[in-house]
Specification:
Four copies of one chain form a homotetramer. With 316 residues, chain A is an alpha/beta fold. Chain A is built from eleven helices and 14 strands. Among the domains of chain A are: 97-174, D-Maltodextrin-Binding Protein, domain 2; 195-316, Alpha-Beta Plaits (2-Layer Sandwich). Chain A is elongated and about 90 Å long.
């Protein structure tokens, strides 16, 4: 029943390209992933589809508060589209820089290119330093850098990553120009079917489809977790792509499905709600510890033993 | 579905005596118990102790809203004292009569004897019909009938059961004289260790010791049952005999511990609260059906299969 | 903070007699009540009825875990019968003694008289010291003392209070003979209509009639209190005297109806449940402090001011 | 205290431009707003800032699932930035068309321009019909139409609204090409301070900052609404722009703050949580009726009268 050990399960990884984006930068923070064969793809749906049909072994895409492309694509793709399991999450700080041809100065810039989200996240910097510059949308931050390099016009600059500066031979005219310096982006590695093993410090993501849009439905869902002391780290009601009025809930919770309390809670939600889609149990980014969970599990094991004894005493 | 043949597990049954009380009357409504060897004992603690140490095979005592003796003795005995399991519950209506020597009339009665609770439950009748009679406490309703028969004085009457009239050769001077004609008493059959098999229409009794007397502690307990759609039929916070401020909860719920949802809920409460004492799963008196439980169980089985599949996909 | 001067509102107080019971002893712990005209009445229903129709100004009766008479009479009388408001609660420890004629010794006792509850609470003492004595029920512990004095037989003893020994000239043959030395009894002073002023350390008692016997109904009730951080000190589901299956909840909670959060919670329960009967807000016995409530109230006042400002901004 | 009647409160309305976007199209569905002086502004933050400092009387911006620009700007601007009140919501279906110069055919198109979100929403159409076309990002859908008209190249098309086709003299090459034909966008009208009057069919939006990231915190918030039968139509946990781990909740609920139950719930949440920011009570788009609310309100009024009577009976 147990899958065999796999020394290198993800030999070929597709990611949201092009090279030089935050997604590639996040991928490079993971030594084992960085050493795989990396394939830059054009869009998040393409990464998800290629992973689902086996053209690549795993996909790497932004999922929350990202700069490149819309993360709704990832979230809705996993929730409503493909059958993929999140294997890992990676969180990196958002660091945006103003890039230009060597020799360019900030003062000389009259046009700034970037993905609309990146332009939006540097609005404060632009208003203070380049109030008269025209802003030009591009498909990604890396595309902006590429265009600046191609156009070879010192009055044009890009907002992009440090990696893009390297790739396209651009200078950093100004660094860390984003309005919210402690902003971060969360990425996920997805692959078919298999679930990552528990590490003692895991996260589980599910989509819960509610039985009906009645008061107390969500409350009932949350109680399932609260009574078992399972902490939620994210909750979002979301239209199910059938118009604005039909909701499901995207939920991230602390723990792994191989934890008794998590499995119990999900079994119970599955039984009581219309449906639950499991998106994965995987190591949580960051370093908070599993101490309390161990205590809870000890109490659960005592309780299981107690109930087993009682059940063994039921007369035939 | 039918309970399996039982080679008479309870050959010797102790009950709260003496003969002629409501307890004996309730015992006689159960054909299999009535055919056992019946032993009248002096007090509820004596019945419980004799059952616990094996002098008798089972004990039969009132537990809720009873006439004879204090039912706190049963409840607290099971909750805090002996280790016994409720095997069955029996509910009978409370019917109290005025009993006297043959030839006595109500108008001639100047003294009425009974257990103080029975006197209290007929207060309305006594005020209307015998406002000047003196009231005399006895240890049980049956004792009152015995005393009336012994004293042989036509101005003395007893409030007791029809069975006591038979036993002591007394007449029914007035029947059904209790103030609340739809009152009822609940009795339980208790025995060591074994749990009654599920019938599809069961009740489970537990005592839950809360972790601390904080707001929300009871709420947490109730949520365990509510999220699993387990209905409570009785709930009572109760001092744990260590003064007035230290509480536990006496809970009766619908279902048997061999129902998944009941076992799950109790496991979870056991793990999260200070302790749970199991008092028994047993056929519920009355006739409401198990239909909805079947639907719930089907949904649970689907959910269990879903989770089993997921757990089988966790990598080593 | 100090309760305002009260020109003796309760000049004539009825209590559950006879003299010499725990009820009288509890009454004597309250200086202002002890100086009123005290009237011993025969039963709890009589005390409640006399208070309701104005024959006495207030009634004093046991309500929880009492020795004399059944406390169900008090609880059900207040919940389902008369319209009276609890003005005060008094808690005293249960101390039972063995009383006999001067010169009697424990070893010489062959018959013990008392209220059945008192006999039950001293079962351990009786089994160890007087295993062969016959036990005789009386209407109250004080009645037992009176009978011992009347019969004047040195082989007969009573289980009763120290006050009864004084009243009837009996000796204390053995003191503090109850099995649970930290047992206590709670009494209440009841009067029509008016509610006791808040002292900062109060309790409120209500009866909540649930809308239907559905899972979650009680949960909904408790949430009303939990969301407002109102602590419950007692909760009991209870048949509404219309048979065993129709329940209401007896609830004691911390706080006074003049506390915003308590009033809000009760308004909301009243609106959402079938009915609520208010039994009183009154100073709590014991000494836990009102500190946290003050913080909560400050937060509520800020919230009220915030909402008032918002409501003032609604356009016509 | 009541604000004076205002016959035309919003004479000058700023909206997210340029002309020809969905935002303008939504604005035109509201006769009273369409007749105001309309000012197209460059970005959502600019609309919000201009409304807050009085340069315009009201602002009109997309808030949920929109095409033009990121709606995070609206949501986070209202939640964490400016002090503005939502006055109205407008929901219109998303209808995207392929626009080209007169005479252009779909088959001849080699480049498609639009806002990245619009390109994403038509991915299916593009893959089926124009798999080889290059995709070019623009700042808005209207900008794409403008660029197509400026460039005057029949191989270039825009994905934009019908209104943009009119504005820029373009043909509809293909209509309703979005992948999810029942998709819709929600817009809001915002203005300072004043709150829209209740209509009996309203919605209220708030941001709730939780006291701590503990299990049960959100549960407590939801209970406040559930116990008062206030239905939530949207709930989203959201980082408070101080990194990924610090959350607040964006909540839309049914009802107006001038409804007792809504005001009560918000008062209570405000008192118990770290903070609540009120974003507005306003007429709900769509046509579901207020019947049940009327019943609830009647029950509340009875409960209020009951509590007023009790409070009037508290002694001084």
């Amino acid at each position: 029943m147990a899958p065999p050990p796999d020394p290198n399960p993800h030999r070929r990884i597709g990611y949201l390209g092009p090279a030089g984006t935050f997604t590639e930068q996040a991928l490079f923070t993971q030594a084992d992933l960085a050493s795989a064969e990396l394939v830059a793809l054009d869009s998040i749906p393409e990464v998800l589809a290629a992973t689902a049909d086996g053209r690549i072994d795993a996909g790497f895409v932004p999922i929350e508060n990202a700069i490149e492309g819309t993360v709704t694509d990832t979230q809705d793709g996993l929730a409503f589209g493909v059958e993929l399991i999140i294997q890992r999450e990676v969180v990196i700080p958002v660091q945006l820089h103003l890039l230009g041809l060597p020799g360019t100065t900030v003062a000389g810039v009259t046009q700034v290119m970037s993905h609309p989200h990146a332009l939006g996240q540097c609005r404060g910097f632009l208003e203070r330093n380049l109030p008269d510059a025209t802003l030009e949308a591009t498909n990604s931050t890396a595309d902006a850098a590429r265009l600046v390099a191609d156009v070879a016009d010192p009055t044009t600059a890009a907002i992009a990553t440090g990696r893009a500066a390297e790739l396209y031979g651009l200078d950093l005219l100004a660094t860390d120009i984003e309005d919210h310096p402690d902003n971060a982006t969360r990425f996920v590695l997805v692959a078919p079917r298999l679930v990552a093993p528990p590490t003692g410090h895991d996260k589980t993501s599910v989509v819960i489809y509610q039985r009906a849009d009645t008061p107390g439905s969500l409350l009932g869902i949350l109680q399932e977790f609260a009574v078992r002391a399972v902490n939620l780290t994210r909750l979002e009601s979301r239209p199910t792509r059938r118009g604005l009025g039909d909701y499901c809930f995207l939920v991230d919770l602390e723990g792994h499905i191989s934890d008794d309390v998590v499995a119990d809670a999900l079994r119970s939600v599955k039984a009581n709600q219309q449906d639950v889609k499991f998106l994965g149990s995987y190591p949580a980014a960051g370093e908070t510890g599993p101490t309390r969970r161990a205590e809870v599990d000890a109490a659960r094991q005592d309780a299981n033993a107690w109930m087993d004894d009682l059940l063994g005493r039921v007369r035939d």
